[in-house]
Amino acid sequence: MTPEHILGLAADATSDDITAAYERKVREYQVDPTAPDDVRALAAERLAALGAARDSLLSRQNSAPASGLSRREWLWMGAGVAIAVLVIALIAVFTRDATPQTGLVAIDRPAPDLTLETLDGGTIRLADLRGKIVLVNFWATWCEPCKVETPDLVAASDEFRDRGLVIVGINLTDQDKSMDEIRKFVQRYQITYPIALDRDQEAQRAFAMFAIPVSYFIDSSGRIRYTRTTVVTRTDIEHVLQELTP
After folding, report:
1. Which tens digits make up the pLDDT trace of 93-107?
2. Any residues with CB less than 8 A from the CB of 48 and at least 6 apart, and which?
3. pLDDT tens for residues 129-180?
4. What is the number of helices (H) and of strands (E) in the chain?
5. Which residues contact 40 (CB under 8 A, 6 or more apart)?
6. How far apart are CA 236 and CA 104, in angstroms?
7. Does a cis peptide bond (omega within 30 degrees of 0) precede residue 110?
8. What pTM was computed for the model?
9. Which domains does the chain have, with CATH numbers?
């Protein structure tokens, strides 16, 4: 992903735009210190990526930092990114290794047993998918990286269905524009996998989800084995499928 994509900016963004987007995104990735290791690892990874994206864009413009922030505030921001990188390294020591070739974070904790309404008027229960490899992907119509990853999700769902893969897209319905926009998104990208509606943040709380896009890979016994923040690719999906297939 480009620095613009990471910060959700247009190519002609000004220094002030870059700073404002960085500060807004940083607030999204503040997580409870008691959150699961994978959640803290993902947050730390994203904070480091946000800092790198901001620095790259400001450097590209060859401009001074935005005047809205004092030197002390910029130093604090830089320190926060450095701490984020350190947290990633420390978590890697005490948890399973991340998969270097894909950027996946390997974990092992039970998947929540959720029953959610689906866009077509039915329901879906995660526990009923035991025996399958399940990819749970959180998304919303306003999420630009979600638009980038959706074609790969659709292709993987069709290609790997016979190998036991089930993809479930969980829409942040409480934050999205309207049901009509959700249906238009599904039609535009010709999504064939089930879309669950998280109307009251039940799924977001159950997964300790704090920002999108994010994907969770659940093995056939019902345990979350990998997470992927930001855009998930067909390569990611195929790699995990190979890892988790008995």
Report:
1. 444 444 434 468 888
2. 81, 84, 85, 88
3. 999 999 999 999 999 999 999 999 999 999 999 999 999 999 999 999 899 9
4. 8, 8
5. 31, 33, 87, 91
6. 7
7. no
8. 0.67
9. 3-94 (no CATH), 105-244 (3.40.30.10)
